[in-house]
Amino acid sequence: MSNRLALETSPYLLQHKDNAVDWYPWGPEALTRAQEEQKPIFLSIGYSACHWCHVMERESFENPEIGAFLNARFVCIKVDREERPDLDQIYMSAVQIMTRHGGWPMSVFLTPDLQPFYGGTYWPAYPRMGMPGFLQVIQAIDELWRTRREQAVEQAAQLTEYLQQSELTESAQPPVDESLLQAAAVRLQQDFDTVHGGFGFKPKFPHAMALQFMLRMWRRSGRDRLLDLVRLNLDKMAHGGIYDHLAGGFARYSVDERWLVPHFEKMLYDNALLSGVYLDAYQTTGDASYGRVVRETLDYVLHDMTDAAGGFHSSEDADSEGEEGKFYLWTFAEVHQVLGPEGGARFCDVYDVSEAGNFEGRNILNLPQTIEQYAQRKGWNPDELRAELDASRQQLRAVRDRRVRPGKDDKVLLSWNALMIAPLARAAGVFDEPRYLQAATNAADFILQHMTRPDGRLLHSWRGGQAKLDAYLDDYAFFLQALVTLYESSFDERWIDQAVRLADLVLQHFADPHAAGLFYTADDHERLIARNKDFLESSVPSGNAVAATALLRLGKLCGRGDYLQAAHGIIQAAAGLMERAASGLGQMLSAADMRRGPMPEIVIVGDPTQPETAATLADLRQRYLPNCVLACRVPGSQAGTPHLAPLFQGKELVGDQPIVYVCENFACQTPVSGRAAALELWERLQTASTPTPC
Q1: In this predicted model, what pLDDT tens digit does every residue of 259-294 receive, in sequence order?
Q2: Residue 34 class from Cβ within 10 Å (0-12 exposed, 13-18 middle, 19+ buried)?
Q3: DSSP state of 105
Q4: Residue 224 burial by CB count (10 A; 0-12/13-18/19+): exposed, middle or buried?
Q5: Under 8 Å CB-to-CB from 676, ≥6 apart: which residues?
Q6: Total-model pTM
Q7: What pLDDT sits at residue 129?
Q8: What is the model's pLDDT at position 688?
Q9: How far apart are CA 325 and CA 359, in angstroms?
């Protein structure tokens, strides 16, 4: 008989509807029962693509003995962390304090007042390899609750009080100046693996935000070593097994230090963030290989992760047919069977496929050397080799597509969709690829039509026609950023109208009236045991950092001093953390770089659909200018949004050539006319790196 999770929409929760555990979703029914019966709560938090979540389900939650004990002694609540990141943040912090590590599945024991008193992550059902069994754990917790309840309650109260303290307790913050930015870049450089790329040792996670900050600091300082390290990291990931060489897209992380063996799940947010940093690298270097990675990754999302209604799905699992990575692995014989002896031999040589295998007797496709290096070693034409390998990859992909695919979490999350909209919109201009802009537009329209309440507030999650859960700061901030990017990519001024509306909602409902920074939940959100400000990054940038970036951009475009002031306050509030923990604040450091300036406003008066203006914009979009804001309007247009009126005031077309204005600090340079003059201007902007006050 199914439990209450059968009524939920989350694929992760639905996976547990037939467990031996009598699960409740988080909500009044479960919380009221815990209060009335004074039972402890067993809170289990995970997500659909989590391999060890599936393992714990099979071992423990489908176990009749464990299920019976949990049902008798606890109120059991199952939470999808992707639906409820607010709960995940609070209780993950508690687990990390109690155990000094965290992860998923997260297992937390709460008092009926929702205060945590014990927690951990994965436990096997019975003792194994020095780990206690989950049955032992819950029996011990039950005994503690029955015989020493006061001790558990007191411990929970102390921990809750700690959780309620602000992450930022310093009354005085250091200045956000050039020395802070340069010191952060030095610390990132010190933490860098100069052999394999990335930060630290195994397991290795992509750090897109840190890499983007390093690119900014290369531009600001001219230190080529920073660019070299970014390129090393991007090259190693694109050549490694963490990248899907057949269909594009990146897996969640690498279990080794050299990016060979991935944890095979694919997350929408990783592919959004990595598309952005590879696009930055392409604009910076002109290296076609980075452009290829961007295109292949975006095409993967459009082909495999896009809902018919317009939004993007959340993730693909690591497992298929009960085996981790099975969908992605190849044997030597399988490749030869598809490609034939000659083509198979060449493909296997290039992509590290052997009879012995490089992973548990099978093979993860990867490139130990570039295709160009391989061609040079063999004396072959690299273009001909690449064309042959492209055809071989298509053949192998067609065969792989007939395999049983990993499970998909097809819910649409607003924040992750917003992260994906931004690189799609940017790539549309960089590659002159209208279908990317169309996909970004469709996703934004989907959010506005299907994930917006009648009062204009946003909803966090959608699946199967049902949107639910009040949106969090990440949702608002990431979408605000995406809307500004959509405007700069299309010059459709309705996106500015929506961005201003969201910015006002953020400042109204998430701002702290007594201090700088934004809360993770709105002022009318469900009351939990803590209301935190999130400044540190996790797998995605912090909502505060993205809000600061978006408010800077929108404030410049619209001449809104209140937006700029709010952004400055957020950045200054995080100064101490940026000074101490640069690796966890890449996006905030990028916001600080933007605030530091120069941050010119580029205003083009011309019709972007006409050849001369379109070519002028295309030239601009090939350049890496991360701190510029861009606006374009058809001359004489009367239908534009009033929010951009200050920016376009007094800027008129002279003759039949587009006019380009560059303005900064309330003053504009002499405008230039035509594509040739604009091209010289873009060159000057790209080489300008001396900071001025913003």
Answers
A1: 999 999 999 999 999 999 999 999 999 999 999 999
A2: buried
A3: S
A4: exposed
A5: none
A6: 0.95
A7: 86
A8: 67
A9: 10
Q: What is the pLDDT of residue 691?
A: 42
CA distances from 240 to 142, 246, 280 (A): 47, 13, 20
Contacts 24+ apart (CB under 8 A), 380-385: 385/346, 385/350
Euclidean distance between CA atoms 29 and 268, whole angstroms: 32
Give pLDDT, residue 322: 87
> CB of 170 within 8 A of CB of 575?
no
pLDDT tens digits along 336-351: 999 999 999 999 999 9
Residue 689's pLDDT is 54
Strand pairing partners for 662?
Answer: 602
d(CA 479, CA 418): 5
Supply 413's token pair.
Answer: 């999350």
| Selection from 541, 627, 532 nearest residue 586 by Cα | 541
Both structure tokens of 497? 């109208």
Find the helix or strand (DSSP H, E) in which 24 lies: strand 24-25
- At 673, the amino acid letter reads S
Residue type at 4?
R
For the chain, list residues with pLDDT below 70.
166-171, 688-694
The whole-angstrom separation of Cα 43 and Cα 364 is 36
Place of tokens 């930060």: 199
DSSP 129: T
Q: Identify whether the C-beta of residue 470 lies closer than 8 Å to the C-beta of residue 476.
A: no
3-state secondary structure (DSSP) of residue 79: strand
Whole-number Å distance between alpha carbons of 669 and 505: 34
CB 691, CB 179: distance < 8 Å:
no
- CA distances to 324, 488, 558 from 630, rounded to whole Å, are 45, 6, 11
pLDDT of residue 171: 62
- Determine the pLDDT at residue 480: 98
Q: Which residue stretches of 358-464 are H helix?
A: 371-378, 382-400, 414-430, 434-450
Single-letter residue type at 604: I
Tokens of 166: 């602000």
Residues contacting residue 609 through CB under 8 Å, at least 6 positions apart: none
Rounded to 5°, the CA angle 571-269-291 comes to 95
Closest Cα to residue 633, out of 500, 488, 498?
488
Residue in the structure block whose two tokens are 């044997």: 331
Q: Please check whether residue 124 is in contact with residue 133, taking contact to mean a CB–CB distance below 8 angstroms.
A: yes
Beta bridge partners of 118: 109
Taking the C-alpha atoms of residue 63 and residue 221, their distance in angstroms, rounded to an integer, is 59
Residue 498 CB coordination number (10 Å): 22
Q: H or E segment at 631? A: strand 629-633
